Amino acid sequence: MDNLDNIKDYVDIPNDIDLAIKKGIERGREEKKKSESMVSLVKNKKVFKKAAIIAAAGVIGIISVVGFINPNVVKAIPGVQSIFKLVAYNQDGETLSKFEKFSTSVNKTIEKNGIKVTINEITIDDNSLAITSTVEGKNLNENTTEMGQINLNGQSLKSWGSKNKKINDNEIAVVTYANVSDINLSDSIEVEMNTVWISDVKGPWNFKFTVSKADKQSNSKIITLDKTIKIPNSTLKLDKLVISPLGNTINYSGVYDKENPSMRDGIYSFLVLDDKGRTLEAKSSGSSSNKNKYEGKIQIDDDLSNIKSITVVPIFKYWGTNYKKIEDLNCEILQTTINSENFNLPQEEVTKTRPVTAEEKSKGYALDDVIHIYNMDKTREFVSLEKLTNQKIKVGKNITATIKNIEATDKYTKLTFQFEGNGGYSPQNINMAVILDENYKDTERAEDGDLAVQEDIKDRIVSIKLPPIDKTKKYKIAIPTVNEPEILDQYKVKIDLEK
Questions:
Q1: How far apart are CA 113 and CA 134, in angstroms?
Q2: pLDDT, tens digit (0-9, with 9 covering 90-100), for 314-373
Q3: Helix count (H) and strand count (E) of the chain?
Q4: What's the CA gap between 246 and 303, in Å, rounded?
Q5: What is the distance, to the nearest Å, from the Cα of residue 466 to the centroid of all Cα atoms in its chain?
């Protein structure tokens, strides 16, 4: 495996972005805990993500002008109305179907060396870009079928993500998505997509077409903020807020007090609160820095239409998943069900280590051992799936998770959680959920397994499908615990949304 550290020094890779090169690194196994930091990586035994550099093609291919066509008449795949609905969720578990309503039909195809690529639909407004495509060829690999460089009106996107779904051995559906709030887009947008490699086949597949921005349909709007605050070692400016039914983003920038050789802005993350003090679902959508200045984007997943104001707070110290170092690995501390809502019951820390299986290795697990650290009630009582339903798990000082439902079939075990309280808890933490039986046999997500999905952002409902289990046995369910962010009042910035 090539060393990913050098690559990440040069490429800005947010949490939810997957990039690929022609034959290069199919899978990097390091989880990147902070998008803004290009240097500091957290060694993690779970949820590894691939990262690499995308080669851009210099040849401009097909040129076409695309008008609006009702996407309801577009059938990209027989029997499937929309690739957005087929792929369903992106890598962060956010729904993709929201893009369908505002999409424009493209239906342009290029075939090279036995690989046929079709751009089906595109949705673009001031905040978001989403493109559906199908790739056809013999024995396609789902994990190496990704679109290449994207330009909008001549401006290259700094980062983007993609989610694939295998239709059969010879056909892959792809949704490519990006946050474009940092680009000032005109009403008419020239889109270029240049892909050099698909799997081990060299193209290029170069598309060029023009579409209209969907702002009138999506009612997206831009609020100029121009709010400045002095923070340690720099001056931070909140530049603008883009509000759209497809997503919301705050663009920020900053200037260092003096030349900064490390190029680190010192901001670990941002917390966003609504007018009632509730923590909203927010995360970085990319950042960059040089020795003199920096810039970035804060993505807010919650619907802001009925919120009067928000408060943005930069956080300077690490917060999030609790870890304990074992054998040079940072292992998540998981809280198990305790069969009680008395969270003061005596508990103990239990560490379980086992060798990785051949099947786990084949699916991408990178380490030789699987290590779990559990906070567990001292009685160590395991119960039936029926008795686990509606149990609460205290995962942080101000937040609990209720097990709303357990759906156990012969194909999967679906766990549905609802989070309550005012603490921050990333939905992606549920990717590390574990079901353990009385013999401490663990059932968890495989490296190539389904990711957690946000079923309802407002009500904080998150679900994940794990492998099937024996419904007659007794179990505990465990999910990661988190610590709280340090909120400093002097750095709070209030934004009025009613102006």
A1: 16
A2: 999 999 999 999 988 999 999 999 999 999 999 999 999 999 999 999 998 999 999 999
A3: 5, 30
A4: 9
A5: 19
Q: Measure CA 223 to chain center.
A: 25
* Domain span(s) for CATH 2.60.40.1640 in the chain: 219-319+487-496
Query: Residue 143 is which amino acid?
Result: N
More confident position, 146 or 182: 182
Q: CA angle at residue 177 from 176 to 181, to 5 degrees?
A: 150
**Rounded to whole angstroms, how far apart are CA atoms 435 and 452?**
15
Kindly state the helix (H) or strand (E) to which residue 392 belongs, with its residue range.
strand 392-396
AA letter at 454: Q
Closest listed residue to residue 369, CA positions, set 401, 312, 407, 327: 327
Q: Compute the C-alpha angle 5/90/241, nearest 5°.
A: 85
10-38 per-position pLDDT tens digit? 334 333 333 333 333 333 333 333 333 33
Overall average pLDDT of the 412-416 stretch: 98
Neighbours of 380 (CB within 10 A): 14
When pLDDT is cut at 50, 70 and 90, the band that residue 210 belongs to is very high
- With 0-12 / 13-18 / 19 or more C-beta atoms within 10 angstroms meaning exposed / middle / buried, residue 459 is exposed
Q: Does domain 219-319+487-496 have CATH number 1.10.3540.10?
A: no
Of 201 and 418, more confident: 418
Tens-place pLDDT, residues 429-463: 999 999 999 999 999 999 989 999 999 999 999 99
Domain with CATH 2.60.40.1630 in the chain: 54-217
Task: Give 257's DSSP letter.
Answer: S
**C-beta neighbour count of 5 within 10 angstroms:** 12
Q: What is the pLDDT of residue 327?
A: 83
What mean pLDDT do residues 170-180 have? Answer: 94
Q: In sequence order, what are the beta bridge partners of 300?
A: 248, 282
Report the Cα–Cα distance between both ends of the chain, in Å, rounded. Answer: 53
CA dist., res. 151 & res. 190, Å (int):
8
More confidently predicted of 340 and 2: 340
CA 209/CA 68 separation, integer angstroms: 13
- Residue 145: the pLDDT is 63
Alpha-carbon span 364 to 320, nearest angstrom? 25
Task: Give this prediction's pTM.
Answer: 0.81
Contact 284, 15 (CB under 8 A): yes
**CA–CA gap between residue 214 and residue 123 (Å, rounded):** 7
What top-level class would CATH report for the domain 54-217?
Answer: mainly beta
Residues 6+ apart with CB under 8 A from 463: 414, 415, 416, 417, 430, 452, 453, 455
